[in-house]
Amino acid sequence: MDKFLQLTITGLTTGMVYALIALGFVIIYKSSDVINFAQGELMVVGAYLLYAFIVQFGLPASLAMAATLGVAVLLGVTIERLVLRPMIGEPIISLIMVTIGLSSVLKGMVNAIWGPVPRPFPEFIPRANVAIGPAVVPADRLIAIAIALFFLVLFTLFFRFTREGIAMRAIADDQQAALSMGISVKRVFAVAWAIAAVSAAVAGAIVANIIGVGGEIAGLGLRVFPVVILGGLDSVPGAVIGGLIIGLLEAYTGGYIGEGLNLIIPFIVLLLVLMVRPYGLFGKVIIERV
Amino acid sequence: MESGVFFTTYKADMGLRRKPVHKVRLLVFVAFLIIFPFLASRYWLNLANQIAIATISAIGLNILVGYTGQISLGQGAFMAVGAYSAGIFAARFGLPIYLNVPLACLITAAVGVFFGLPSLRLKGLYLAMATLAAQVIVEWIITHWTSLTGGTEALVMPAPTLFGQRLNTDFRFYWIAVSMALLTALFAANLFRSRVGRAFVAIRDQDIAAEVIGVDVFRYKLLAFAISSFIAGLAGALLANYRTIISWERFTIETSIFYLAVIIIGGLGTINGSFFGAAFMTLLPAFINNLGRALQTTAPAVAGLLPAVQQAIFGLAIILFLVLEPEGLAKLWRNVKDYFYVWPFSY
């Protein structure tokens, strides 16, 4: 029973980190129908930026985080303007490949600036262990949950109540109708990329705090695809629920079956979901079937 | 001076090489391929072999992605199946190259059809996700089925022998690799003049319309997966026989992305583009490596940066081609030809 509780809590915390990464995917997909293969690299960039501001420039943690988010917004808007805007209306393969190319450019830039060797991350979230009943959880994971929940609520409110958020939903629903109602699609795409870069930077910082800052963080970007497919590519709550389900599934298979099966179980789930319910648990039930 | 293409017989109109200049160009190219290994150094022969194998793999992927419109992120996995099958047949059962390669191709085709099954229900982005899952699952099976594949250790196979010759030098393997690449290109070029190939193109352009005019979409999609992964398996099996050391690290998601980049840069849905892309993407890193070695003494700081720069240039090349010339190098080549076709009056 203790093991079950421990695994559950581990799974939930992993799941929350997944959810936070997945949010970035969902925001971009929801507004512009682009699946962002560079999300993992954006996380790496965010983590290294925070590292640079804290360690190399010696800023205090709060100021460094603010600076990181500022740069992330700039980066997101720049990417949208330079890379994604010329791709509007291109086939899906071009959209996929352009974000893959982008991830390669970002990877190269990070390598050129900070080198390929991972570095220890300054402890900006305390890593001490906290006991919840019989289970032991590192505090940073709990804070990750809190941060992810905070962003989830923020995004939900954003989509429901703000002008930009409603415009984004309108564009997701019908781009041409939105255009004819005077919504600036370009502006909304830029906002979407800025938000995605920010959420990636936050997720990157949290993950870096757990595993150190290095290129491996980007691997998580790939592992989040099952999450977004399960939850539904255009659903914010879906990202969180999907994240939690995949996180728990990984923890249980890792704990009870082992043999590294936890590494592929999400992808087996991905295949099953695609076969049975391709739009995921909460996605919009519009999918081009053959 | 010609102002257009005028044929007086159906035979001439249907020809693969329709004009004398095409035939001359092909002859010159083949003659170059025959003379090349006698003049080139080992370094260039190695590059040529890599390009030949990459061309085969790119043609395979192009049949699926460029001609049939089914996005696949699983090329690395299919090549891995080909390479490991060939390696296992050679190392465990002692099968010679002319048996282990075809068997590996058949096995890869079967695996390809299996992972192509989701394409019956999915397309576009969702199919890309399904093939990504295939990539991850195949990679996992290879690294965990230790008794068969050697797991994360490399699988070592004996150097292949053909007609009593050990194919253990770049020079000897060149003939196998290049002739297989030419055969694959010939097969693919002819495929798209046949009923099957036209069906593939119809599915890519409009799958519903294709179904309406009587193309069995399910059957042809699976056939596209089968043919494409058969060729991917060929590339993998040749790579295995060439290197004789097979490591799963050569067939990761990075490999899948590399080949997608090759066909994007070369030109989607073109055979010669597959070759251009393969050559470009093989020579570019080699060029940067050489630059690094040249700079090692004069500017070691710059040389140290080059691996990172190489990564960035790889991505930049993809982005620039997508933004500036989405039809790739094949289109650039066509532009050059068109320019000289009406030269000197290019208007």
Describe what is shown at a glance:
The complex is a heterodimer of chains A (290) and B (347). Chain A has 290 residues and is mainly alpha-helical.
Description of the structure:
The complex is a heterodimer of chains A (290) and B (347). Chain A is mainly alpha-helical and 290 residues long. Chain A has helices spanning 2-32, 39-56, 61-84, 92-114, 139-161, 163-173, 175-180, 185-211, 217-223, 225-231, 236-257, 265-276, and strands at 129-132, 135-138. Chain A has one domain: ABC transporter involved in vitamin B12 uptake, BtuC. In chain A, α2 (39-56) runs antiparallel to α9 (217-223) and α10 packs across α11 (236-257). Chain A is globular and about 60 Å long. The mean pLDDT of chain A is 83. By secondary structure, chain B is mostly helical. Chain B is built from 15 helices and 4 strands. Chain B starts with 9 loop residues before the first helix and ends in a 6-residue tail after the last helix. At the A-B interface, α4, α10 and α12 of A face α6, α12 and α14 of B.
Instruction: Give the CA-CA distance, first to last residue of chain B.
Output: 14 Å
- The number of domains of chain A: 1
**Major sheet characteristics of chain B:** 2 strands, antiparallel
Q: Which percent range describes the beta-strand content of chain A?
A: under 5%
Q: What is the global morphology of chain B? A: globular
The portion of residues forming beta strands of chain B comes to under 5%
* Physical arrangement of strands within the biggest beta sheet of chain A: 1-2
- What is the mean pLDDT of chain B? 85
| CATH architectural designation of chain B | Orthogonal Bundle
Structural class designation of chain B: mainly alpha
| First-to-last CA distance of chain A | 46 Å
Supply the number of structural domains of chain B.
1
Q: What are the low-pLDDT stretches of chain B, counting only 5+ consecutive residues below 50? A: none
Q: List the uncertain runs of chain A.
A: none
Strands of chain B, count: 4
CATH architecture of chain A: Orthogonal Bundle
Q: Helix count of chain B, per DSSP? A: 15
